[in-house]
Amino acid sequence: MHELGIVTHVAKTLDELAEENHITKIGSVTLEIGEVSGILYEYFTDCWNYFKVRHPILKEAELKIEIIPAVTYCEDCRGTYETITYGKICPHCGSEHTYLLQGNECSIKEIEAETDDIQENT
Amino acid sequence: MKVIELHRSVTESNDRDAAELREQLKEKKVFLINLMSSAGSGKTTLLSRTITDLKDQVRIAVLEADIDASVDAERIEALGARSIQVHTDGMCHMDAGMTKAGLEEMGLEEIDLAFLENVGNLICPAEFDTGAAKNVMILSVPEGDDKPLKYPLMFQTSDALVITKTDALPYFDFDMEKAVERAKYLNPGIRIFPVSAKTGEGMEEWEKWLLEETAAWNGNV
């Protein structure tokens, strides 16, 4: 269940951010998750729902997930292709000299939040 | 409500902690190895033999992250290495913060070589940098030669692969050549050590690598 571990890391990052920016409440969190990042969205959402009610700042936060498709680049023919369909071998030229261009991401894109403006102005 | 754009990787704060810990360990001359494997791969047996063979040459410590393993810790202590149990709070992996806390509790003085026995699985520990100088993965013969295909990230993030229980090769359908080829395909620079901690076969090469790497890290070359 490594999704729970990742949720706790998201929460830790948001805690830090909340302190820096005087955030009082987080309305939503948008994550960018790559297709081949190894994260199962359904498990992740379950973990999130379990975790957020135990975490004051996230209590009302809605989780939004944006999926980034996996794309592989071929060094030999310089083409790109869908990683999930073809894997490591380039379907254009048969080369093995390929690497993942995108699709391994797990990052926090943005959040919607209420801040304590009085403190911000002082 | 206002929108705050972040574009921050989830592992970013852990990566930062890990880099700090690595620096601290370099300063203190402690060579930390993050040891990753499935449960039952022979991790403790490999460590026991390694400690027995090397304890007169380097001062060794072990951090145990196994959830149930006070037995393991006792086994290690009996051999004369320092050992500490680290609690992962039910988490499936060690991160840099937990590793640092464990090391601090144990104390970094008079240690040359430290092993972090990560939680026994091949997925989660690969994703979180622990602050170790090197990552080593254990694959046991009974687990099969197709493991690299199933857990590519683990093989990509490891500096060395120890293939354990080679004394069991006659009884399993394990193709050593294929396993090596698959691991090298994912990670051309990976060092591979086939060993049997039971018979001692291959242990010399593995221990030689450990001593060389420890000396290089600790600046005693």
Task: Describe, in short, the structure shown.
The complex is a heterodimer of chains A (122) and B (221). Helices cover 34% and strands 34% of the residues of chain A.
Describe the structure.
The complex is a heterodimer of chains A (122) and B (221). By secondary structure, chain A is α+β, with helices and mostly antiparallel strands. Helices cover 34% and strands 34% of the residues of chain A. In chain A, the strands form two sheets. Chain A has a three-stranded mixed sheet with strand order 2-1-6. By secondary structure, chain B is an alpha/beta fold. Chain B contains eight helices and eight strands, in the order βαβαβαβαββααβαβα. Chain B has a seven-stranded parallel sheet, sandwiched between helices. Chain B is globular and about 65 Å long. The chains are: A alpha+beta (122), B alpha/beta (221). At the A-B interface, helix 1 and strand 6 of A face strand 1 and helix 1 of B. Strand 6 of chain A pairs antiparallel with strand 1 (2-9) of chain B, so a sheet runs across the interface.
Question: Any key phrases for this structure?
Answer:
heterodimer; A: 122 residues; alpha+beta; hypothetical protein PF0899 fold; elongated; B: Rossmann fold; 8 helices; 8 strands; 38% helix; globular
